[in-house]
Amino acid sequence: MVSGFGITQELIERARAIRLVLTDSDGVLTDTGVYYSARGEEMKRFSIRDGMGFERLRKLAGVQVGIITGENSEPVKRRAEKLQVEEVHLGIKDKEAVLEQLMEKYELSESEIAYIGDDTNDVAVMSRVGLSACPADATVFAREVAHFLCPNEGGHGAFRDFAELIIAARLSL
């Protein structure tokens, strides 16, 4: 469990209730940079540690994981396939609408959903869910509504920080 980063009993209780973790991609699973190959192909940098967080959430905590991102990005699609993420929503302008669809599909309440985001387009969802987080380098807008500030930056383990918090809380039931 991540320690020393504002973990309270309330935060642990919120984390125990989580059954679905949703994440933005750019700025959370990746750093905020966009890279291009010599042929002009878009490339993104992902953290291997974050990838392990997806697997650990599913296997150890029995928590489903999904991605909701405003970008329609081939690198994100490929990464999601590699991580065996079933709920992948690319090119989304209204993330709240996807949240509503997933709540209905999985018969979940807001308190059973966690979300990690880094910017203004994540704030509405972050404000609604039972547990929200942001990377250490998130915008002030995301930081203001997050329940948990991850010690690591986007693309450098922030998702894993959040995953381990949820895993630790759920395993201590």
Structure description:
By secondary structure, the chain is an alpha/beta fold. It is built from seven helices and eight strands, in the order αβββαβαβαβαβαβα. It has one domain (9-171): Rossmann fold (3-Layer(aba) Sandwich). The chain has helices spanning 9-16, 48-61, 74-82, 95-106, 123-128, 140-145, 158-171, and strands spanning 20-23, 35-36, 42-43, 64-68, 87-89, 113-116, 131-134, 148-149. The strands form two sheets. A six-stranded parallel beta sheet has the order 5-4-1-6-7-8, sandwiched between helices. β2 and β3 (42-43) form a beta hairpin. It is globular and about 50 Å long. The two termini are 14 Å apart.
Keywords for this entry:
alpha/beta, 173 residues, six-stranded parallel sheet, Rossmann fold, 7 helices
Can you summarize the main beta sheet? 6 strands, parallel
End-to-end C-alpha gap: 14 Å
What is the residue-mean pLDDT, rounded to a whole number? 94
Counting DSSP H or I runs of 4 or more residues, the number of helices is: 7
Number of strands: 8
Helix content: 25-40%
What fold name goes in the CATH topology slot? Rossmann fold
Within CATH, the superfamily carries the name HAD superfamily/HAD-like
* Overall outline: globular
Q: Can you list the strand order of the major beta sheet?
A: 5-4-1-6-7-8
Encode the helix/strand succession as letters. HEEEHEHEHEHEHEH
Total discrete domains: 1
CATH architecture heading: 3-Layer(aba) Sandwich
Any idea of the CATH class? Alpha Beta
Strand content: 15-25%
Rg from C-alpha positions? 15 Å
